[in-house]
Design goal:
The protein is mostly helical and about 210 residues long. It contains 10 helices and 2 strands, in the order H-H-H-H-H-H-E-H-H-E-H-H.
Length: about 210
């Protein structure tokens, strides 16, 4: 098992503690960095998409390929297709401890599949199609999802331009919090979130 020098761990922890977007306590950051080193084999290594998906699946029971890929993209701030230890900690800070505004921005980024600043009809359809269980024929299902997209637009598209801006999304979620994950689960359930945070207080991580 890879280990990290206490002096190096202390420096990295202090640096992350100074970042306003980091909501973790000192001991939690230390555990997350140690977990990162255990997964990647070294603090200077980076976490790839496959190993990150394993974390999402094992710890948070996520199974949707599109959403797991988008969660990775939301964590990957420099878009290099890998996560540094800082991106890992800061991403998990929003994922596990983010304020409502942080989570609104995060979910919007996840759902904006092409990164153009809007959630389009096509993106809504694609997201809902992968997250809704199939109980009917493909053709019937597509029609049902199209109807659902129109209902969502009617409720959330405040400027009536047939797509959702960040402002539309924020306004809708602030009036009805259940709309935060309208297009599929991309945040942990309270039970799994609490279990992961509890694990950070234990001596050994499971990775």
């Amino acid at each position: 098992m890879s280990v990290i020098k206490r002096q190096d761990l202390a420096k990295m922890t202090e640096k992350l503690l100074k970042r306003k977007e980091c909501k973790f306590e000192k001991h939690e950051i230390e555990k997350l960095i140690t977990m990162f080193v255990s997964i990647t084999g070294g603090v200077n290594n980076k976490l790839d998409r496959t190993k990150f998906r394993d974390v999402l699946h094992i710890s948070f029971n996520m199974t949707d390929d599109i959403l797991m890929d988008r969660v990775f993209r939301a964590f990957d701030q420099d878009s290099d297709n890998y996560l540094s230890h800082e991106e890992w900690v800061i991403g998990l800070s929003t994922f596990l401890k983010g304020a409502q505004d942080d989570k609104i921005k995060y979910c919007f980024v996840v759902y904006d599949l092409n990164g153009d600043g809007w959630i389009s009809r096509e993106e809504m359809f694609q997201l809902l199609k992968t997250s809704i269980l199939k109980h009917s024929s493909e053709e019937d299902q597509d029609e049902n999802i199209k109807e659902l997209v129109e209902l969502i637009l009617k409720k959330m598209d405040h400027d009536h331009d047939s797509r959702l801006s960040m402002s539309d999304f924020k306004q809708a979620v602030e009036s009805e919090i259940l709309l935060l994950e309208a297009f599929g689960p991309c945040l942990p359930s309270p039970k799994l979130r609490d279990a992961f945070l509890e694990e950070l207080s234990q001596e050994q991580a499971k990775y």
